[in-house]
Amino acid sequence: MMTKQVRYEALVKALHGDLYRYAYWLCHEKQVAEDLVQETFLRAWRALDSLKDEKAAKSWLITILRRENARRFERKRFDMSEYEEATITDTQSVTTEQQLENHWLREKISQLPPEYSEPLILQVLGGFSGEDIATMLDLNKNTVMTRLFRARNQLKEALEAEPVKRGMYNG
Amino acid sequence: MDDLQFRRAIYADPNNQSDETIAAQQNDASKKQFAQDICQLDEKILQALQVPVPEGLSEKLILRQTLANHQVHKRKTRVHLALAASVAIVGGLMLNFMQFSSAYSNLGDYALAHVYHEQGVFANNTDNQVTLASLNKKMSTFDGNFSKTVGKLISADYCRFDGMKSLHLVYQGVTNPVTVFIVPKNEQLTFSSTFNDKKLFGRSMEFNHSNIIVVADRNESLGEWQKNISETVSWSI
């Protein structure tokens, strides 16, 4: 009993950040992301004995989280409206150039179709290989690679098309 | 590796370390530049993806699990308690059943067992004789009456016939004593009109409130005994 508790706490501490970020990029809402992570970890606790290989923990948790996210849509289909740009939360006040760029890029990533953004997030944030992503998303590897290519391509084009000066000018 | 293939490979995975892409970068400065650009882009993407995690999320997760676990625990102990209670009840019932139910299911089996149990007690040629009056006094408990003796009565006593108060009569027989039971009717034991084993034979007669069972060995005519008894016995209501 105790060892299970210890395992669980270690799992939470090591992976809750990655999982939260992944959830955030899936649903673009802080609160929903938090709920998803909570639900995911609760399910993970119940099924913790089925996790044999600790190395697979991250992909295991992500699989649970994706299922949980899908369930959210089953529950309330009417909530599937496209989010507006304005609803994307400004996670920090714009102060430095770096943060400004982050914010801008976040919007661009949010605007990617989910089938492109998801593999990208898994690759960049999760550090998963093409094969890993393919198994997680239940796609074949070539499809994953094509989507990754298109995702980066779109972001790069958006970056290149961006005006040199950004921001708001008054007066 | 042509330019398009190279670009696709780098776009799909900027950290692609396959021999082909490395070789391509070494042979072509512009390809190397491109790879670096995309790596930079990736760095930016990673920066952008690092949204701040809400403070105390891990504590919240652990708390929530602990609470949920506690509830499951509580529910489990309740289930265990209920289980233990059920087992206790079933155990009690079993004990009750075993202690107070008869081991024999029909009159005949019990009567035979009873006779065997008291086999040595009564000798066929004893001088004891019970008078008709004292027999009838005992018979009054069962609202019964014998008009005359049907044979030499060696013994007449109350006994426990499977927990029921009954009358145990022993008559002198041809070679061995003949046992007659007067037993109040009871639903626990099924009525068996004739029964026997290797040595003893028995017959039962059903009256209004009582059964009369005769057990004797093969030398006796049970029919005769039955006939005599049913002709002499009378029941008051």
Automatic annotation (TrEMBL), chain A:
GO MF entries: DNA binding; sigma factor activity
Sorted UniProt keywords: DNA-binding, Sigma factor, Transcription, Transcription regulation
Pfam families per record: Sigma70_r2, Sigma70_r4_2
Domain RNA polymerase sigma-70 region per the UniProt entry, residue ranges: 11-77
Entry annotated with the keyword DNA-binding: yes
Residue ranges constituting the RNA polymerase sigma factor 70 region 4 type domain according to the UniProt record: 104-155
Family according to the record: Belongs to the sigma-70 factor family. ECF subfamily.
Species, as recorded: Colwellia psychrerythraea (Vibrio psychroerythus)
Domain of life: Bacteria
Protein name as catalogued: RNA polymerase sigma factor
Lineage: Bacteria, Pseudomonadati, Pseudomonadota, Gammaproteobacteria, Alteromonadales
Keyword Transcription: yes
CDD domains noted in UniProt: Sigma70_r4
A biological-process GO annotation: DNA-templated transcription initiation
